Every structure is written in C-alpha cells, then in structure tokens.
Amino acid sequence: MQVRSTLGVLPAPILCDTPGSFPWSVFHERYPELIRKVRDASAYGPEHRARLDQLGEQIVSGVVGPPDAHWHDRDSWLRWCEPHVGKSWSETPFLWAENYFFRRLLAATGFFDAGGMRGVDPFGPFKSVELASAATDTLLTEFNELVTHTGEDEQAPALLWSSLQANHADLCFNLAAGVPSGPPSGTGLLIDDGAAVLRHLENSEPGQIVLVADNAARELLPDLLLIDHLLRRGLATGVELYVKPQPYFVSDATPTDVIAAIRRLTGFGGPAEQAGHRLWEALRAGRLALQCPDFFCAPLHLWEMPVELLEHFATASLVIAKGDLNYRRLVGDFWWAPTRPFREAVGWLTAPVVALRTLKSDVIVGLDPATVDSLDQDSPGWRCAGTKSIIQFGLSG
C-alpha cells in the first residue's frame, strides 16, 4: 500500500531549535525536571542515577549519540539516528527527539538490562498514584451517576466527551509543569464533530473499531468505559485497543496499565464495577483485543507503519486516535497551515477516523481562518497550553 503520494509536499518539520518555543522548552526545562523526578521516584543505584544525570546534560548542551551497542533494537535505532548523530538535540525534529529521549531514558534506568531494575516501569509510581487518587474516585462516581440517571442514548455523547476531557490527565504534561493533574479551567472545544461520529456509528454496519490509546491511569478509564458502551450497544463487533509495548512518554498506556485500570473498575462498585467485569469477559472472548506493536514506540508517523498493519487499519469501521502525540503522528508533526482540511491531512488512511485531543503542541489542522486569527490575537500560546480541545472527524474518500 503506497500512501506517500497522498501526503503532497510536506512542509518543514517542527524542530527544537528556537529558544522560547515549546519544543525548546520541553528539552531545556520540562525533560530535565522529569529526569529529576524519575531519579527520585524509584530506588535507582549510583550507576542508574549517573546515567540519568548524564542524559539530562546531553539533551540541554550535548549532541545526539548513536544507540548503545547492547540495545536489542539497535539496528532500527541506527537507521533512525543516522541523519541526526553528531547534531545538537535542538537541531533535530521534535517528534524524533522526544522518541529518542524516552528510549534513552529507558536505557538509563536499566529497563532492558539483566539487572534488578529490568522491567521496572520508571513512570510506574506516578501512574499508580493517579489511578488510586481521589480524582479517579470522582470520575468513577460521576460515571455511576450517569448510568443511573440517564438513558443509554444520552450516555454515548457523554462517554465520548469524557474520553476527550480525560486527556487532560497527562502525567508528562503535569509532572514537569508542577501542577495538579486535574483538568484546567476554561478549556475550550475548538472543533466538535462528536455528533457526526455518533451518527456514523449508528448508521453504519457494526465492525471492528481501532482505538489508539494515549495515557494510562485516570485517562484510560473513560476510554475503557467508552469501549464497553460500544460493545454493549452493538456499535462494534469488536474493539482493538492499541497500547505501547514498553513505558513511553511517561503516562502512555501499556498492557499492564490496561489490566490495572480494569481492576480499578471491578473494585469500585456499581455500574463501573459491572463495566469492568464485562471488559474482562470481552478480553476473554476476544471481542476486546490488546495490541502493542513495536512500531508504536518508533519515531515515525502513523503512515509509516508496516504495510500489513496499515492495511489492517484500513479495514476498521472507525479509528479513534487519542491524545496529542497520536494526533502529531496522525497528521504529521510539520508546520502545516492550521486551516488545512483535516480529511486532507489524514487522506492516507482510508478508514473513518476521529481524533480526541487536548492541544499540547504546535501542530493543528482543520480550523477556520477567523478562529486562528482570534486565538493568535487573544490567547498567545494556545496551541501548547493544554486549554483547547478538539473532536475532529473525517470520513474516507
């Protein structure tokens, strides 16, 4: 399947090279602070702590080095690193640099090594705290009240909205910023195609839905509750939930995080508990399938996925892309005109697709010129502040 021809001429990639820009601040402020928090969150020994400190220095003032000789995925990373080795981190594309940073962070913490920290999620403490938090209790209580006091037809839009709103629970965004992990006030929905998404599901033959997950813990719960609703109402014959095969971008969900989230549901009581048990049964029956291809931890856009995976996505009745990172990979982390039509940007994917995203980086498409002008004038930094959201839907063809 050839998709490159559908993309047109790609604009310049978003780089990390402009002081004061969002990508620059990520590598000079956010990630050094994240390294300090990871360093202190687990019982890392002197060697691991020294590696983390070295990584923190490299991303600010050092140059990109090749992957370590013992990496199990070294061949792939050699290929991906080739254009960038020897450059300063600031000279590299933002999407690539973030991916390589998190791969190097796993190496620094010994995640793949034979020692005692093998397989220990460096972000696990943060995920566990959030999953057990009072804010998560509140979310599940609100879900129980929704199911108790509304009809099923009213629940679908509420669950879609909840899945979007939970995207504010981004640990990478909040840990480094030093703010609570609750949703900020004044969040504005710039594009709301939610009704079109629901019409598509209700008017189409039920099929396999693909949900590309973003964050674990509190954000993952509304995703799972939405999946349960889609299966229970017969709006999907099955759901494939794509998560990361290893810890990634702090809060990104892994299979372990999915299991923990379902257990949280089954232990809560009421409709949330019932939904949790249905999800267990859906996993056992194969109607809910966890998928974690290595590709999803690669520094690539979604149109660069292996051909067989791309062809599989094309057969979905709906692809749901959650979160900011998946949006960047879906439309391309380039300086697109913000008015570029969304359907044109995702024309490489022939399946219907909806993006549920809180804006936390520069790339955006599908806005009208008046909205862009107003936001640029009245809300400087609106693209990256985490205060604007979108439900963006595009049909194939």
Explained architecture:
By secondary structure, the protein is of the alpha/beta class. It has two domains: 15-120, Transcription Elongation Factor S-II, Chain A; 126-394, Rossmann fold (3-Layer(aba) Sandwich). The chain contains 16 helices and seven strands. The chain has helices spanning 22-41, 46-61, 74-81, 94-108, 124-131, 134-149, 152-165, 171-177, 194-203, 217-232, 255-266, 270-285, 307-314, 323-331, 342-345, 369-378, and strands spanning 188-192, 207-212, 236-242, 288-291, 318-322, 353-358, 388-394. The chain has a seven-stranded mixed β-sheet, with helices on both faces. Helix 10 (217-232) links the parallel strand 2 (207-212) and strand 3 (236-242). Helix 7 (152-165) runs antiparallel to helix 10 (217-232). It is globular. Mean pLDDT is 92; it is low at 169-186. It catalyses: beta-D-fructose 1-phosphate + H2O = D-fructose + phosphate; beta-D-fructose 6-phosphate = dihydroxyacetone + D-glyceraldehyde 3-phosphate. Residues 28-373 form the Damage-control phosphatase ARMT1-like metal-binding domain. Belongs to the damage-control phosphatase family. Sugar phosphate phosphatase III subfamily. It comes from Flexivirga endophytica. One of its GO terms (molecular function) is metal ion binding.
